[in-house]
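About this split. The held-out portion is used to measure sequence recovery: a designer receives only the structure tokens and must propose an amino acid at every position. Recovery is the fraction of positions where the proposal matches the reference. Here is one held-out target exactly as it appears in the evaluation file.
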């Protein structure tokens, strides 16, 4: 698609572009507010205020444009002009975090402010130059506006609640799928691995069985997690990301106690694998205590008993 250089725009085109930018920024802030409204209503009010301010800028630009060039405004978009940063629509990120929203707002303000400064420098009309310069100054003050809105709407209690909600989202989107994969990979691969070890007494054959079990379990868990829900209602985030994370953690869980079988001495490999299994189960218990609020002893009992039962089953089958 053909684009124009910024330096090639006339004053009429600069004003038309500025109107489009202010409308886009206002709607973007409104979309951010809507995305945060359900879980972070007080922070959403910050972005509602910023959307209103951008809309005020747009009306000022419209009045100036009509006085200078009439009622027809050419539709000039940011993507028609070289130099603008490509932005994704907010609706494509339904699980927008507060930090990402504020980072996005900071980038928008910086880019729009730079546009107004450059546009003011190129304008020869005094009233247009003054308007663009004033808007550049207002964009520079947007951060202070955001801070004042934050002080007004986001109290310490609200900020604490938002941090708790962020932690909840972290658990839902990262910890849960990762932990599910780690548990499955660490436990489900024990039986085939140790059955192969005690049946074949061959480290390399056991290693191949462990790798195959880990890969198979990783693929299975990855697809299962991705297909469980699309995250739109549960807030669990992108199914592709969750599936990838769960699959990789499942593979890693099985790989840990498979790697010792690269040692050719089967007795040493078995001993080292037992130690790795214990470390894996201990790690899973700690994660459950840290992020899932499960008492450590209870988590240890559940994980260790389950793991030992699967381990014993593999040893019995391999020894029969």
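Reference sequence for scoring:
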């Amino acid at each position: 698609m053909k684009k124009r250089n910024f330096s090639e725009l006339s004053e009429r085109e600069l004003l038309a572009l500025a109107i489009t930018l202010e409308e886009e920024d206002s709607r973007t802030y409104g979309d951010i507010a809507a995305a945060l409204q359900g879980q972070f209503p007080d922070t959403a009010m910050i972005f509602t205020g910023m959307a209103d301010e951008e809309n005020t800028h747009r009306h000022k630009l419209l009045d100036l444009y009509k006085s200078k060039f009439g009622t027809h405004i050419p539709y000039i978009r940011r993507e028609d002009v070289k130099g603008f940063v490509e932005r994704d629509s907010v609706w494509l990120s339904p699980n927008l975090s507060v930090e990402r929203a504020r980072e996005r707002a900071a980038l928008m303000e910086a880019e729009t402010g730079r546009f107004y400064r450059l546009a003011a420098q190129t304008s020869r009309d005094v009233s247009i130059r003054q308007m663009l310069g004033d808007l550049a100054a207002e964009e520079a003050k947007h951060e202070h506006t955001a801070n004042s809105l934050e002080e007004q709407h986001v109290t310490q209690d609200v900020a604490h609640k938002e941090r708790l909600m962020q932690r909840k989202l972290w658990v839902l989107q990262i910890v849960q799928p990762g932990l599910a994969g780690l548990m499955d990979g660490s436990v489900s691969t024990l039986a085939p691995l140790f059955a192969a070890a005690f049946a074949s007494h061959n480290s390399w054959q056991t290693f191949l069985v462990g790798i195959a079990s880990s890969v198979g379990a990783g693929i299975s868990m990855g697809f299962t997690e991705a297909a469980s829900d699309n995250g739109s209602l549960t807030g669990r985030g992108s199914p592709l990301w969750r599936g990838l994370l769960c699959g990789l953690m499942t593979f890693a869980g099985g790989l840990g106690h498979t790697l010792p079988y690269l040692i050719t001495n089967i007795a040493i490999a078995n001993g080292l694998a037992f130690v790795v299994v214990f470390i894996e189960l201990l790690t899973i218990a700690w994660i459950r205590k840290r992020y899932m609020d499960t008492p450590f002893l209870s988590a240890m009992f559940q994980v260790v008993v389950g793991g030992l039962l699967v381990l014993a089953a593999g040893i019995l089958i391999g020894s029969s």
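Annotator remark: The longest helix spans residues 156-188.
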